[in-house]
Amino acid sequence: MSNFTRISDASSPGREPIADLDENDLTPLPAALNKGRQGPALTPLGVQSVDRCECGLDGACALNIARPKSREEEDVLVASFLSGLEKLFSKENNWTFLQPLLLTMEHCTGCQTCSNSCHIYESSGRQEIYRPTFRTEILRRLYFKHVKHGGLVSAWQHGNIELNWPLVARLAELSYRCNLCRRCAQACPIGADNGLVARELRKIFSQEMGISPKELHDKGSMLQLKSGSTTGMNPAGVLDNMNFVDEEMSEKTGLEIHTPWDVEGADFLVIHNAGEMLAWPENPGAFSVILNAAGVKWTLSSELSGYDAVNYGLWYDDAQFSRVALKHLEVARKLKVKAIVVGECGHAHKALGVIANRIALGDLDIPVVSSMTLLRDIVLSGKLSLDSSRNDFPITLHDPCNMVRLMGIVEPQREILRMIAPRFREMEPHGVDNYCCGGGSGFAIMSPNNFGDWRSQVSGRKKLEQVMDAFSGSLDPAISKYVCAPCSNCKGQLRDLFTYWGIWEKHRILYGGLVELIVNAMTDVNPGFIDWQWR
Amino acid sequence: MTLITSFAIYTGLAFFLAGSLWRVFQYSRMPVHLRWEIYPVPGEGAKRAAHGGSYFEDEDWWKTPRHAHPLNEIKAMLAEIFMLRGVWKLNRSLWWVSYPFHIGLYLLIAGCLFSASGIVFANYPFAPALFLATRVFAWAGLALTLGGSAGLLLRRIFDKQLRNYTAPSHLVNVGGFALSCSLILVGAISGTMPPLKDSVFGLLAMHSALRLPLILNLGLLLGSAMTGYIPFTHMAHFIAKYFTYHSVRWDDAQKSKSMEVHIAECLAYHPTWSALHIGQNGTKSWAEVATSSPIATERNQQ
Fold first, then answer.
1. Do residue A182 and residue B38 have CB atoms under 8 angstroms apart?
2. What is the pLDDT of residues B234-272, one digit of tens each?
3. Distance between A394 CA and the closest CA of chain B, angstroms
4. What's B152's DSSP letter?
5. pLDDT tens digits for A435-486?
6. From the list B33, B57, B98, which residue is nearest A100 (CB)?
7. Residues A27 and A159 in one domain
8. Residues of A in contact with B234 (CB under 8 A)
9. Number of folded domains in chain A?
10. ipTM of this predicted structure
11. Is B165–A107 a contact, with Cβ atoms under 8 angstroms apart?
12. Cβ A97–B34 below 8 Å, yes or no?
């Protein structure tokens, strides 16, 4: 098949997908996984989805946008998009990102250097629609035509595109085919940022049209602002859960574990991704073991939103982002802590440490510290008695984009691993050049229709290849292997990716956090903290 | 004709300067944005930038004074400006045409500066050396710019992956450079030229007696038009790049007092986003939207 899609195809009137994903077109997998499958890469969409939703991009469907019932309804939606487009380029509505957005709109030369750095574009067999510049080119043409009102000169200077409902619907889906890892922006010689463009497009759909993935909005930021957590846990629920985790940890480690709550004047307020408490309770449990053993003055908060570091607004909506971030800072202010420590959650690191930094004014300007650096200082201080031979199995490290490329926290986690993991090996490339796990920008929690297939087949493909390469030579299932991913969303993606490809059964590769490895190496803890069981 | 060329050169330069200043003014007056850096940030210092680290790697970073590392930034900038390092690393086939184009333009700019200096310092003993440098830089610059722009033009026309993102103006842009360089080269080689010093002086002084070959005049006219036109196109990325690197990609600066004042002004803006959860009732400032509950506003509006 031809995987070439012209820019103008995006506004073609039919509802047929403008790109067709065939497994044969995707990049070959490592030999051990090459099942020789042929045919569509994605499970075909159900009849109901095709009939009721806008799925005219690539045969996947992330948003479930209802089809308009009439031409008039389409026109209203297009007008709403246009209104959002104008607002996106006004300082009153978008002072938060106007400068980087305009620089990208006005100066990308279309050299396509960025394309060679995009794991989605590459993994898809270079499908044109996934090229980082594809959605940007559409937005650029719309910007010059409808915001700058360039007329014929604009069409000559920047190209033309017809604005219609099929285009808007495809752009909405297309904005959710980017992990926002910004590897493309890192590669751009001009400094243009196509990752930002995907995020800004999402803002038009959310902030103006009320269109967003329900996992990020209704079940994400809205639920968090209402109940305190995207998991739906209220303050009483989180206390219950962590008490249970304490009991489990005490039993498992042989130490008496008490997680401190709401301690005013503590040095550090630790905020975990609350999803850990339900999906991987050993992670917050291991934090409690380490911080208590090291004598750190720390606390968790049971106040609404104070116990869930998640901030999904980072990926799609500035208002929701700010609301959640300000709540986190307010909790820390009330507790009078010296600093906030973010647990093993990449996007929460960046949300609170970097993006919220400039709206944290006055007494909300509270320092944010990475758990990686705190843990590094504890491990190197000698406060814990560690025996690296307890971690004598192959370990590789996944670098969460938000924490590493977008925040510069690269070495602390490596310093720890070099000390406690004798068989640690890097993935290639790694550090700030890493590849996204494929679950970035909210994808890890999104699996509507066949979007889960898309994550495992396309966006996660590069990471799968990296993991397999890192363990080449020890892929025998008799050897237990561990991918250290100090980020909840990355772990969620690795769980789904490994399940899809049968990685645990075939190769016994487990994923988990960094703190579990530290506790596993602690000599005053019962041996065998890491459970070699799939979860 | 040559008088027209002189006038075109000054006009082109005036447009270039005015357009460039307008660009700088436009971007520097933009509201402060939220932090959006990408690592490595060379301002973190050579040691830390080598692995892409930031001050967040220090636990007590807020207690430690931060030091600027301008030399490291300059080093990174020079590699990008004079070697096109990013394109070399990730888009090698394009580098072979993009690099001569850019270096050719740098040499042409240097050649122009040498020739103008030759006029200013005409009575100094080193003036002949300046005109010799002018010849070397101008010939090399013209050849490289012509080769690079012709290569870029061909790539834009025949390379499917570039063509999808090519507007008619892009062809005119690189085509304009190729044509202008060709005319200047052909005019200078084939026609009868006065001595270089006299030609430069005549053009700068708008000397009506100066006679240059017609083709050369046409080349200079087109080159002047291109010079004046650059700032109004995406080719003004030499200006944009300062902002994309220093104000976005490498900007991990903590808030200053003046920045806090600027942010407070932004927080007073009145956004008009329409989605229900934004809860804009026509009166809320950005700060009020950010501190309001979307649950309550959705309930009220339903």
1. yes
2. 999 999 999 999 999 999 988 889 999 999 999 999 999
3. 23
4. H
5. 999 999 999 999 999 999 999 999 999 999 999 999 999 999 999 999 999 9
6. B33
7. yes
8. 106-109
9. 3
10. 0.95
11. no
12. yes
